[in-house]
Specification:
Helices cover 27% and strands 25% of the residues. The protein has 467 residues and is an alpha+beta fold. The strands form 4 sheets. Strands 1, 2, 3, 4, 5, 6 and 7 form a 7-stranded mixed β-sheet that branches. Strands 11, 12, 13, 14, 15 and 16 form a 6-stranded mixed β-sheet that branches. α10 crosses α11 (434-444). The longest helix has 18 residues, at 95-112. The protein is globular, with a radius of gyration of 28 Å.
């Protein structure tokens, strides 16, 4: 779908920024976007290439740390022209098209709300949040988002396919906007009845999609015909409505829409998804949980190349600087919603520096403390040759009261299992130690004993895992 731009990422958090020479500027005129299309690739002009009208550019959002602003062009630079958004949809794909759709959503909202709906005063941009407020009466408004539904109706191995009487010419599903006082599920049932005369049952949520071209948030549902499957089409809204088998289904030419993905899902599963008896996981795909692991900043014992383990030690000045650099990197990943750290001072301090930058809570979990190396602790790493061999003895405790690898893995695995259960769909940063990171790596990836003993995480190195 249009928003599926991974590994790129849209950051829509409100910020006040000034454009830089390489910032991208979204310029609209009568609903058309100033752009260049070459080889079906969309190009947005940079600030340095434009002559703008008097009003200051408005910061919109960033994609991969590339900021986008809204402004009015005083002239059209060479190689560029104004394109209707619908034409760009048919010709382009990728992160810039998604950015164009999202920018259009905000552009249209700003254009529709130049004056207050209460006292007719001029509306002004708020400098603390994405909002407009009236300079006369203080009335404040926020971006409008229209909830709408897409409905895949199934009957006897067929799906109900429609075509609009006006507008988009390709195959679609029943769709419509939610009305006052109804749920999305009630809207789905009502729209199917109004457009095709069919009653439905077993309405199941599938997925949602932002659709900036119409300022919509689309919610997709699958359901089944309840009773007669005779279609009584509303010929004012539709020019065709019919039942189609999977092998007969003609998809839309572009893969941008939730509608197309739902039709493709029906086709690719030969009409078996989602049947009435399907488990919920098949109709509502599980959310991915993303976990970042990092090792604390450099410590005094690291600097001396001594084995630290559970011995508490402080960060060096370099370790503090590493933590600050990592905090800046993590700030680019604004999806991080929680930090879980080891109780040892070096990990806690690193976590606190990052949390201050991200404005997220820190939770301490003793299971993320470093491997207890027993009497190996505080020994010079280079002159303790049997230390590497001891790491390979899976079920044998480190000498003089330390932990075995089995014990380490047991607590680290338990911690990750709990993160998966308690923070499903979130992004969590674990700030811990080299030995813990080594055990975490085996949770997500198979490793030989030799690879395990040689695995190394640098101070404040960052690793990402998805579940």
């Amino acid at each position: 779908m249009i928003q599926d731009i991974f590994p790129s990422r849209l950051d829509n958090s409100f910020q006040t920024k000034l454009p830089q020479p390489d910032s991208r500027i979204m310029c609209f005129q009568d609903g058309r976007l100033l752009a260049c299309v070459r080889d079906n690739a969309l190009h947005i002009p940079q600030y340095r290439a434009l002559s703008l009208q008097d009003s200051a550019p408005v910061y919109l959002f960033s994609v991969d740390n590339e900021p986008f602003f809204l402004a009015k062009a005083a002239a059209v630079p060479e190689g560029y022209q104004y394109y209707p958004i619908r034409e760009l949809r048919d010709r382009c794909a990728g992160k810039y098209l998604y950015a164009a759709f999202t920018a259009y959503h905000l552009y249209q909202w700003y254009a529709d709300n130049r004056f207050c709906g209460i006292c007719r005063g001029a509306m002004q941009h708020d400098d603390r949040e994405r909002a407009l407020f009236c300079t006369e009466c203080g009335h404040k408004i926020y971006p409008r988002i229209n909830p709408a539904v897409i409905v895949g109706v199934i009957s006897n191995g067929r799906i109900l396919v429609t075509r609009y009487r006006r507008g988009y010419a390709h195959n679609a599903l029943v769709a419509g906007f939610t009305e006052i006082g109804e749920t999305a599920e009630e809207c789905a049932a009502r729209e199917v009845m109004e457009e095709t005369g069919l009653r439905v049952k077993n309405i199941r949520y599938y997925k949602s999609q932002p659709w900036g071209m119409a300022q919509d948030l689309l919610m997709g549902f699958f359901c089944e015909a309840d009773g007669s499957d005779e279609i009584k089409m509303d010929d004012y809204e539709l020019k065709s409505a019919c039942w189609v088998r999977p092998e007969e289904l003609e998809l839309q030419p572009q893969q941008h829409s939730l509608t197309n993905e739902m039709m493709q899902l029906f086709r690719d599963t030969n009409g078996h998804l989602p049947p009435e008896s399907a488990p919920a996981a098949r109709t509502l795909p599980p959310q991915k949980t993303r976990i970042y692991f990092t090792r604390h900043g450099e410590t005094t014992m690291n600097a001396e190349d001594h084995i630290s383990g559970v011995t508490d030690c402080e960060l060096t000045e370099e370790g503090l600087a590493q933590a600050r650099r990592l905090a800046a990197i993590c700030a680019e990943h604004r999806e991080i919603g929680l930090i879980i750290c080891s109780p040892l001072k070096r990990a806690r301090k690193t976590a606190e520096i990052i949390a201050e930058q991200l404005h997220v809570p820190v939770v301490t979990d003793a299971r993320l403390r470093e491997w207890d190396y027993g009497s190996y602790e505080d020994q010079p790493r280079g002159s303790t040759p049997d230390f590497q061999d001891a790491k390979l003895a899976f079920g044998v405790r480190m000498k003089d009261g330390g932990e075995s690898l089995l014990q380490l893995a047991h607590r680290v695995y338990g911690c990750i299992d709990d993160i998966r259960r308690q923070y499903t769909g979130m992004t969590v940063l674990c700030v811990c130690h080299g030995g813990v990171c080594r055990a975490a790596e085996t949770y997500f990836r198979d490793m030989t004993a030799e690879a395990f003993s040689q695995f190394f995480m640098g101070n404040c190195e960052l690793r990402q895992y998805e579940i």
